[in-house]
Every structure is written in structure tokens, then in C-alpha cells.
Amino acid sequence: MKRTAAGFFCILSILSSVLLLIPGCDVKEHGERLRGEAETGEETADKDLRLSTQEENKEVVPVGTDAGSATIMIYMNGSDLETKGGEATWDIAEMLSSGIGENVNVIIQTMGTREWQDYGISGESAQTWKIEGEELSLIRDDLGQLDCTSSATLSEFIGFCKSAYPAERYLFLFWDHGGGPVYGFGYDEWQDPEDSLTIAEMSRAFSEHQDVHFDIIGMDCCIMASIETCYALAPYCKYTLLSEDFESGLGWSYRGWMRKFEENPGMSTPILGKEIVDTAINANENSPDGDSACIGLYNEATVNDLFAAWKKYAYKNEAALLGTNYSRKHRSKGRGNKSFFEGLWGSDQSNVTLRDYYISDILALVESIDNSSGEAKNLTAALKASVAYCGHTSDKNELTGLAVSLPYGDPDFYKQLKSVFLDIDIDSEYVQWLSHFVTESSYDSYYDYDSFEEGWGGWGDYESEYGWNMSSGPGAYGYDHAVGGLAGYGYAASDDWLYDYEDDIWYKYEDDTLYLYDEETDTLWYYDEYDDQMYYYDEYADDWFPLDSLYDHSCFDW
Q1: 95 partner at 20 to 30 Å CA-CA among 66, 278, 316, 365?
Q2: Does residue 461 sit within a domain?
């Protein structure tokens, strides 16, 4: 790719200033005026701002699609979260208040719950519902008492939704408890309390409907953001949206992002994903019922490269990994503080931590063991590319977005891990290598992450070296999305936007041109490296205008 870094810091400074001031200025109206002057040939001070033929013909890259319909499939196992706390029907109320339902179908299957607290939902039988005009409409009431931890139940629901509510786009959402990539999803109050839907069983169900490729498969549940979960679901979706942390009782916040999706069912998938993450993080940040949260959007096109890089790193650092237990000590709360955990870890719920699930945060582990070798650099680059966006509450809890399972000292856990991982086609050599963690005597010697926690400044710290940073050019270890990422996975052009944490803006390269998109102002920009100039697009005037034009008018008081 051809580009220069000259002038970028100045351009970025200007752009940042403009983005801060745009709310007080009608940029679209300003663009229409410039276009009118150019078309009439009026001799004004703006005459030098008219665009050249090359600039007028500059392609307008999509920030979304022209899709007019979507279907969201929600696999809702209310469980004790609903029976004891009404948390599922609370989230249904948020969905109903969003106004969704005309352009976007929302189909909810309710299961696994002895007592639902609202909307006349039955605990005696599974039911299927559709949101219609702020009402919850019953569309299937003859299902019987289904087992939500069964792959067959999941597969049937997917098949029903795709047949009855076909659309141009699809999202899938699991709602309930999560037990990490080894134990999986779901606590069905009508089934054996130790039964769950594993990621292997999820993969099997999705594989039976490969005519449907989901934009996002999300899980509104605890501790499912792992490299293994992403690996299991990679063939069936563009992105996953998962929590690395235990979730509070709030879970996701549905009203805001569903309203935006209803208004624009063609919105770009990563931008929609960021909206889902941000609304959940904001809810936890601002509600008295909220708690620490770490939720991410994961680019499934990068997962194979990420797993390959992780294995090379892990094999190189085997002695260090085996010598200390790098599982996390972070405690559960909210949705993690329920009877789902009692059957596994006893009744003292306050003692449930991430280490009980042998969850190790990948980046924290790299920064603590070896962050300078070639293997470490390649892993960090692949990890940053995989974590398309990560949101975190303002507290620090040692989590950075994506985890890996290392079965320190637990043969029973490893037995379950082996079965699940082999079923999702993780290579047998790696699964066998993991058995070494079971017999090591160091499993009681936990690593102290305090120094990492104090020094962790967020993903923005990695942009210059590992990103394709707009202000400094490609990092020395930047992941090449054109080779290992989005290319060849059938991604629409609207889906290949990348998020720059440092500059808080979306960007993409196309035909050697850098495009930028600011979601708050809905403004598209591109940078012309030959004249070292930034242009913004005005959709009403259907034209590009130089960024400098905003400085030359009374629109801003400089």
C-alpha cells in the first residue's frame, strides 16, 4: 500500500478539532452551499474550494449496506435469573421500548425457566415470540418442555427463524448464564443442573444451517470471550460479541442499539457491534446495579491466524506457563452469583472466580511473560486484529478482552476440555499439550497481576506498533487484513472498517486511499496524500469538500 506519513499529525489535529466542534455546525448545509456555488460558477471567496475532476469522481465507500431487513434470533433461557430476579423479562421490556419490529424481526424463544415474571410467558412449555409494535406476540405455543442445553433444540430454532422470517441480514443472541468455553452456555431449571450447551454443540447446530451466515453471534452471559469460543463459531459468523468478565445483573442494554438498528437495518456490522458494547458498558458505568464489565467484538476472520500465533507463543514459553498459574482471580457477581455455579463449586458463591474456570487473559499473560520475542509480537498483532473493539468500565480488573483456557491441576476439567476441544477440531497435538498443566505442582502458585493492572492503559497503547494507525502509518507489526483478515471471507465492503483506539475513529484503506468515518457525526472523510489534504463527504450535496473549507466560513469561531 502506498501512503506517506508526512502531514498526518497536522491533519489529525485539525480533524480532531473539527469533530469536537461539528455538533455546533451544520456541516451538511455548509457542503450544500459550496456545491451550489460551484455549480452556478458564482465568483465568491469559495471558488478555489471547488473540487477537481479527480476529487469529484472519488469513490464514496460504503459505511453500511442497502439492506432493508434483518432478523435477530434470541435464544432466551431465563433460568433462575428470571425465576428469582425477573432479569429476562426486564430485558424484553427494553427491547419492546426500542420500537424495533418493522424493519428488523426480533424472534425470542423462551425456555428453561420455572417461573416467568411478566408478559404471560409460560414456564410449563417453551414458546416462541415476535416483537410487534411494542407488543410481544406469541407465534408458537406447541413446543412442549424443550431442553435448551440440547443441540437439537438450538438447530430447530435456527431453522424455524430462517424459514419463517427470512431477511437480508441475521444476528443470533444467546441469553442466560455462561460457564466459559469448556462448560458452555445455559442452566435449564427443568433439566439436570450440570447440563449445559457446549460450544461444540453450538457449532454442530449452526453447521446444520450453513445457508445462513450471521453478521454477529452474541452471548449476553458470563465469561464466554475466549479464543476457543471464537474458534468454534468462526465458520458461521463475521463477528462474535462476548463478555470476558462475569456479567452484572444488567447484562446487555437493548433499547439504544435496537432503536438504531431498526432505523438503519443496513448499518455496518462492526459499528453496530461497537454500539452494543458501548451501551452495555455505559449501563454498568452509570447504574447502581452495574458492576465491572469487559465486553468485546471479535473479528472471526482472524481467528485461525490468532490460534496459530498463540500456539507458537505457548510452545516457546512452555516452562513459564507451566511454572506459575496464570488463571485470573477476578470474582463473580450479578449473573455469575447464581445457583448455576453452586452445582459446580459449592454454595459459597462469593468465592467463584475466573480461576475456577481456568481463564487466563491472553494479553495480560503475554505482557507478564514475554512481550518482546518474535512470537510475542506476532501474537499481539493477531490479538489486536481479532479484538475488533473492546469496551471496559472505568475500573481496572486485569482483563483486556480475550482469554485462553489452561487447565491448571484439574484432571476433571481437562477431561471435559479435551472432549469439547476435539469436537470443534482444535488440533490433537495442542489438546494433548494442555494435559501437561494437569500434573504440574505449580497450580497453587498464582501469578500476581497487580503490576500489569496498574500499567494497563488500554488498546490505544498498541496502535502505533500493532495497528494501521492513521496518524503514524502502519505499525511495525501491523496485521495485514488484506491477507489474513477480511479478504476471502465474503465480507461486504461495509464490514471491513477498523477501529483506531488512539484516535477514536473508524478507518479503512481502499485503492491506496485512506478513508475515515466518525460515527458520532456520521461524517465520511478521505485523505489525499498527493496534496496532503483531507476531504469530507456531504451526502446531500453528493460531493467531497476540503476540510479547510470549514475554517474559511463563519461556521466556526476560530
Answers
A1: 66
A2: no
